[in-house]
């Protein structure tokens, strides 16, 4: 078990990490709705970068919180997100229905892994309800994406962007919740 001051310092780092995740996701959403929607090449790059960023973020988070062995759900999420980034590159050749299906499968897996991470962290840091809720919502949205990928309407980056916007809001709420919890603890 971590000492109270060590837990507080780690919770503070986790709060900063959540703010960073919220900011990057919000910037991605803004880019997706503007330049990504207007320029297919930029849109394709953004679609590849979103899961790649998730892989990098999970790696950084796992390393900062005890390493890969101590953080199995984040380590697996790193692998899943990295493979997804490559799968999106391949799916782009087949079209946006394939991309949406890949994003859907990723959202299900990444959501369940995020839910597991939030549940594990709850015991140490508390204030993880937003991450647990986000993981569950991600898994449900992913299932919807997979179903939607078989439909007649042609999806676009703007189909996926609201999913990322919800993710940004959940990370922001989690950061604020940790901020409040840390202030009460101080």
TrEMBL record:
Keywords: Membrane, Transmembrane, Transmembrane helix. InterPro entries: DUF308_memb (IPR005325). The chain crosses the membrane at residues 25-53, 74-92, 98-117, 129-148, 160-180. This is DUF308 domain-containing protein. It comes from Caulobacter sp. (strain K31).
């Amino acid at each position: 078990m971590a000492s109270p001051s060590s837990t507080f310092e780690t919770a503070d780092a986790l709060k900063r990490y959540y703010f960073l995740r919220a900011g990057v996701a919000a910037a991605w959403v803004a880019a997706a709705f503007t330049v990504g929607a207007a320029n297919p090449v930029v849109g394709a790059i953004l679609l590849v970068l979103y899961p790649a960023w998730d892989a990098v973020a999970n790696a950084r988070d796992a390393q900062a919180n005890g390493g890969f062995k101590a953080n199995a759900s984040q380590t697996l999420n790193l692998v899943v997100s990295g493979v997804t980034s490559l799968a999106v590159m391949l799916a782009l050749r087949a079209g946006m229905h394939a991309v949406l299906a890949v994003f859907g499968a990723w959202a299900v897996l990444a959501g369940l892994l995020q839910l597991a991470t939030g549940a594990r962290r709850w015991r140490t840091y508390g204030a993880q309800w937003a991450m647990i809720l986000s993981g569950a919502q991600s898994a449900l949205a992913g299932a919807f994406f997979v179903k939607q990928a078989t439909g007649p309407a042609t999806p676009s980056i703007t189909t996926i962007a609201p999913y990322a916007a919800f993710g940004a809001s959940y990370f922001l709420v989690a950061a604020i919740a940790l901020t409040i919890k840390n202030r009460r603890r101080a």
